[in-house]
Design a protein that fits this description.
Length: 382
């Protein structure tokens, strides 16, 4: 969403013991009443990681051991220290009020009928297949390791503070297979949609950023796992790692940055790996994620909601930055998202697609590795 409306942890745990392998000068956050303290590098002040000496595909630093699923944890009152850019001040708000361009003009809206929408049946998969289906915005049906995972599921026609969807949902709710897990990137309304989540059984495993578990527990979800940056959990052999993003969180007038934000790296038992960025601006985290999780097969990256740039550059990638991010990640393929669904900013509705295709070509990347899917379409990782 727009800034107005949306206004390094490596812990290895075994049983009750833990080893911490991060910056000893960073602030500590407790992981729970009986858990270890976790040190962090929230501002990215540590020097860039050197490549692993053991193998060009070995993670550096080593990945954290998966945490137990569920359980209540204690978090700091605020995550303001994780911001990579300051939130807008009074001067920026005054400029925004003065200029106020957060919707495309008539010409920018004229291409709505041309937005790609090609719903089809979900592909057949087995436990060794990775497949993605774009439901629209940041909502994907991700099939990995035999699981069906929804990312930031928004099946509602309208979200708070925006016009109705300009493309329908690409996958009918009734057409979904049983949902094995949900991942949430942050609490903005276009990523955390209460009416959609109410459709799920309350025992659906949900993976959420630090501090957001209480929101789900109040709604009687019983299998909620909260993670800090660089932490992981495992479900049926699939690893869920929570990673940093250049963004922020806010859902009410009084909860700015009270919960964390980030993306997810999902890895199946075969080592196939998908990165879901959630919502993010461009910055140093992509290179660090790529070093920590080498061999990303597919990066789901946002390309829309970027204009005006002075207002949104800190929190939303433009198409050229998204291509650069895919390269920083070392991702073999990229699938664009976060465009063509809700009107959240001023760029023409088709511009993100045309610009990302041009940027991909200019970067000299293989056209087949840009999975610029219509809403409702699917691709299977070969």
């Amino acid at each position: 969403m727009t800034q107005q409306s949306e206004t390094n942890t490596t812990t290895a745990t075994t049983g009750s013991s833990a080893t911490v392998t991060t910056d000893p000068t960073a602030p500590t956050h407790p992981t729970g009443p009986a858990g270890p303290a976790v040190t962090t590098d929230p501002a990215g002040t540590l020097p860039p990681s050197a490549p692993s000496q053991a193998s060009p595909l070995a993670p550096f630093p080593p990945l954290a051991e998966p945490r137990p699923l569920g359980g209540r944890r204690v978090w700091p009152r605020t995550f303001h220290d994780r911001l990579t850019a300051p939130l807008p001040g009074l001067k920026a708000m005054a400029r925004f009020a003065r200029e106020g361009a957060v919707r495309p003009g008539r010409e920018g809206l004229a291409d709505i009928p041309r937005l790609p929408f090609e719903p089809g049946p979900l592909p057949r998969v087995d436990a060794r297949t990775v497949a993605v289906t774009w439901a629209g915005h940041a909502s994907w049906v991700l099939r990995i390791g035999g699981l069906t995972v929804l990312t930031d599921p928004v099946w509602s026609r309208r979200i708070l503070g925006t016009p109705a969807r300009i493309t329908p949902v690409g996958v009918a709710w009734e057409a979904l297979p049983p949902v094995d897990a949900v991942v949430i990137s942050h609490n903005h309304y276009d990523h955390l949609d209460a009416p959609t989540l109410r459709r799920l059984p309350r025992d659906t495993p949900v993976f959420v950023p630090a501090g957001l578990g209480r929101w789900f527990q109040r709604r009687r979800f019983t299998h909620v796992t909260e993670l800090d940056w660089w932490e992981a959990a495992e479900l049926s052999g699939v690893r869920f790692d929570f990673v940093p993003a250049h963004h922020w969180s806010k859902r009410t007038l009084t909860d700015t940055c009270r919960t964390l934000w980030g993306g997810w790296v999902l890895t199946d038992p075969e080592g196939q790996r998908v990165y879901f960025a959630g919502d993010t601006g461009y910055g140093h985290w992509f290179g660090r994620i790529g070093r920590r999780y080498p061999g990303i097969d597919l990066a789901l990256l946002p390309i829309g909601a970027y204009d005006p740039r002075w207002w949104l550059s800190d929190v939303h990638c433009d198409p050229e930055e998204a291509v650069r991010a895919a390269q920083d990640l070392g991702a073999r393929r990229m699938a664009p998202m976060h465009w063509g669904t809700f009107i959240l900013s001023a760029e023409p509705v088709l511009e993100p697609l045309t610009r990302v295709r041009t940027a991909w070509q200019k970067a000299g990347l293989d056209r087949d590795d840009l999975w610029d899917l219509p809403v409702g379409a699917s691709r299977v990782l070969e």
